[in-house]
Amino acid sequence: MSVSRRLGPLPVHIALIALVLLWTLPTLATVINSFRPPIAIASSGWWTALVPPFNFTFGNYQSVLTTNNLATSFLNSLTITIPATVIPIAVAAFAAYAFAWMNFPLRNTLFLLLVGLLVVPLQVTLVPVLQAYQAIGLTGTFPAVWLAHTGYGLPFSIYLLRNFFGALPKDLFEAASLDGAGTLTTFFRLVLPLSVPALASLAIFQFLWVWNDLLVALIYLGGQVTVAPMTVTVANLVSSLGQDWQKLTAAAFISTALPLIVFLALQRYFVRGILAGSVKG
Amino acid sequence: MERIPQVAAAIALPIAALLGYIFVAEWLINRTPQRVRPRLRPWIWVGPALAFVGFFLVAPSIQTFILSFKDATSANFVGIDNYTTIANDPTVQLSLRNNVLWIVVFTGVVLIAGLLIALLADRVPYESPVKSLIFLPQAISFVAAGTIWKFIYAYQPQGIEQTGTLNAVVTALGSEPHPWLTEIPTNNFFLIAVAIWAWTGFALVILSAALKGIPLELLEAARVDGASELTVFRRITFPLLLPTITVVATTLIIFALKAFDVVYVMTGGNFDTNVIALRMYQELFNARNAGRASAIAVVLLLTVIPVLWFNLRRFRAQEAIR
Amino acid sequence: MSVLATWGGAEQDSFLAMVKPFEDQTGVKIQYEGTRDLNAVLSTRVQGGNPPDVAGLPGPGQMAQFASAGKLIDLSNILDMTAMKDQYPDTFLKFAQVNGKQVGIFIKAALKGPIWYNPKQFTAKGYTVPKTWDELTSLSNKIAGTGTTPWCIGFESAASSGWPGTDWLEDIILRQSGPDVYDQWYQGKLKWTSPEIKKAWQTFGTIIADPKMVFGGKAAMLATNFGDAGTPMFANPPKCFMHHQASFITDFFVKAVPSAKVGDDFNFFMTPDIDTKYSGAVTGSGDLFGMFKDTPQSRALMKYLTTPEAQQIWVGRGGALSPNKKVTQYPDAIAKQSADALTSAKVFRFDASDLMPDAMNTAFWKAILDYTNDPSKLDSILATLDKVQTDSYK
């Protein structure tokens, strides 16, 4: 599809580039610092490393990559994150469609309740849920975290998807039902394909939030090396007194590598929708 | 490598279960009389979601509400004592004030920045890299973000070489270095800045996706008719984006209410930077007072009501147009 | 079996090395879980019904709270108490007890109260190690007179910022008003607004409220991480000459200044006596371990951890002292000196803030920060502390 990319005027370019530079500066500073020995980091700014004498070292990366359980915890993170991304989106999609296009009593109330649940702080749910998990023997298992992340991720997922589903033109549904399409057909053949950008964004967010989570995994799954995700392993690189914090500079980027790849992969779904030119009011 | 079948099963089984549930339910519904169907169907579709949310969020919230009327070890009822204590607690008042600051500054800046960048990036061929770079902070965990901003805000007394970027700039311009995170009250803004850096990408991605949903022909038609960019924005883009902006704004406001990680990692709530979620955490795990912590949590839950009311009005407005 | 503690990085390695012989001997696999948020994670798991088998306890205060809730197992029947009484100073046993029951053991200890200095610099400038508080004061004034600040101090420590200041205060109170006052104070029986306690804060204030005394002044004290605070002592020319900090700071010195040699470039003298009546008083702290689930493996591990052989392993690796009198191999003379000061002190007291209830402890940290920020507010700060005291010692 040809979209005419209008090359905006110069101010647009300047503004964008300035913003991007501003945003990447902190990360860039840390990347540079991650290649410096800890004493250098503590005594001089990162910019001093850009002029001779360069004082670069792979030491930080080396010590992180040779950490005992990095590979295992990477696998653990994947094991935790992938199902915890797919399941909430699936459950949310069904619910969001109902909230967007089906009429039923209490619809708005229930939906508002859902949105309101966004504010529930994680800590107040830990003990009750843990007690329940203990009672049914789920503690320390992967399903425990999959289910927990689903529960925690649903309010936002439903909120977001309902918004996108609801933005689809009414005529589309009317046309479909005239053609004799049932609910299921409409959902799978019409709504989902048209909502790919929304589903992709949601997948990215949920993936990131679960990938970077520390507390939920620690409490419901545990921190032992067989199941600990990367966040736990990285946090444990630093001693309780804060020693070896320079390892975090390298660890930050090592653990960001995968999420970044996921983001870039899902990026291509952020394209102009193929809504057939229906005009709204 | 026994993980692969395990993960594959973890995805396949629940999805299969969900699909099975829906298909079977739909098949059963199609066996009921026509008029009954639209009354049954929605509940089937929202059922699983309600179950999850009920177990993980609603039940604990109700329990918290009950605990807020009990004492520190949840042994006896104390009526509204906890609420009166926290109402008179200056640290709670300070935290609430800080949260208001977060709501206004954090939400405002992220929303405007996200929208602005979405609009600007839409018009250049290098849109994708721009969005990726602004979004990058979202991919970084909070343990790492703390380290990253440590290098920006670091402070050394005058006379020692500055390792913090901000102080290096400030001293190069002739001023003396500042301990940004401990200087009251500006430190709050520096904390909020970290959160803005992290979350603008979030707003950007959602707003950008919504922007892509606006038919190009609509905008072109207006431009061809001679409308200025600003007018196009005001009359076409903004109204069509309003529902998404509501979603993003609501989410951001709620995150501002729940702000915890940044403050916890960078100042621990000291130097007048405390926020309500951290205050609750301290009451729960430091003071070990379940009753008071629950009361604070309930207050936090109640603060979301104005936001919900606003959302309700937007729904009604949208329904009217449909 | 599961072990939960707060150690990470090198500490984690040391702990795992410490338990390796146990694993080899018994075949029991130790599943270690580390978190810096020990308080939150341990509380949640205990309350949620999923405690670890054995866990590090954040401090004696929290240990007492778990014990009174009945969550900790009594170790008196599990450990060889005769051997314990033989190998450990009384105080280290006492502080791991609640209501006479031994509910905790000390894995490692730290000496509090050392004042670190650079011997080379002292010799060069003709300074002598002070033996009384008055001598310390005149030395500080002398150094200040030459235009350099005598002290380096840093309180920053994320959520626990302020704790180095509590160490200062504890050393002052113990030496100024004696062990009885100290005991009443940490037990919540003596008010913060009482004359003895207020006097101690004011003594503390003679150092931190005077801009000529501390490098970088108030801003540096509040913003500098405790681990980095002593480094300016090694600068050329030095920015300060003395640093009050626990024995574990040596590791930070060596990492920041690799060329610094133990004994030559840094050494310590104990915080000197203030009142000769209470001379020989020493403060210290330690990492406590407790048992939450009574299983054969847990019992075996707890017994193992108290033996001199086990303690020796971590000590040998550096960064820890052992309260066990039978542990004698230390990596260097200074470590040995610190350990001796710990085990043979005439009057030993455990770190008071660790002994207080959590809420009091946190308020204490915050009070240090508030006082540093504005020493003129001392009275209102002490009044607030009194309120927290009434509330938290229940």
Mind explaining what this structure looks like?
The complex is a heterotrimer of chains A (281), B (322) and C (394). By secondary structure, chain A is mainly alpha-helical. In chain A, 68% of the residues lie in helices and 0% in strands. In chain A, helix 4 runs antiparallel to helix 10 (196-211) and helix 7 crosses helix 11. The two termini of chain A are 26 Å apart. By secondary structure, chain B is an all-alpha fold. Chain B contains 14 helices and no strands. Chain B is globular and about 80 Å long. Chain C is α/β, with parallel strands linked by helices and 394 residues long. Chain C folds into two domains: 2-111 and 282-343, Periplasmic binding protein-like II (D-Maltodextrin-Binding Protein, domain 2, 3-Layer(aba) Sandwich); 113-258 and 354-392, D-Maltodextrin-Binding Protein, domain 2, CATH 3.40.190.10. In chain C, 48% of the residues lie in helices and 13% in strands. Chain C contains 17 helices and eleven strands. In chain C, the strands form three sheets. In chain C, strands 1, 2, 3, 6, 10 and 11 form a six-stranded mixed β-sheet that branches. In chain C, strands 8-7-9 form a three-stranded antiparallel β-sheet. Chain C has a two-stranded antiparallel sheet with strand order 4-5. In chain C, helix 1 links the parallel strand 1 and strand 2 (31-34). The longest helix of chain C has 24 residues, at 163-186. Chains in contact: A-B, A-C, B-C. At the A-B interface, helix 1, helix 2, helix 4, helix 5 and helix 6 of A face helix 1, helix 2, helix 4, helix 5 and helix 6 of B.
Quick one: biggest sheet of chain A? none
Please, what is the oligomeric state? heterotrimer
Mean pLDDT of chain A: 85
Low-confidence stretches of chain C: none
Inertia-based shape of chain A = globular
What gross morphology of chain C would you assign? globular
Low-confidence stretches of chain A: 1-5, 273-281
Please indicate the count of domains of chain A: 2
* Helix proportion of chain C: 40-55%
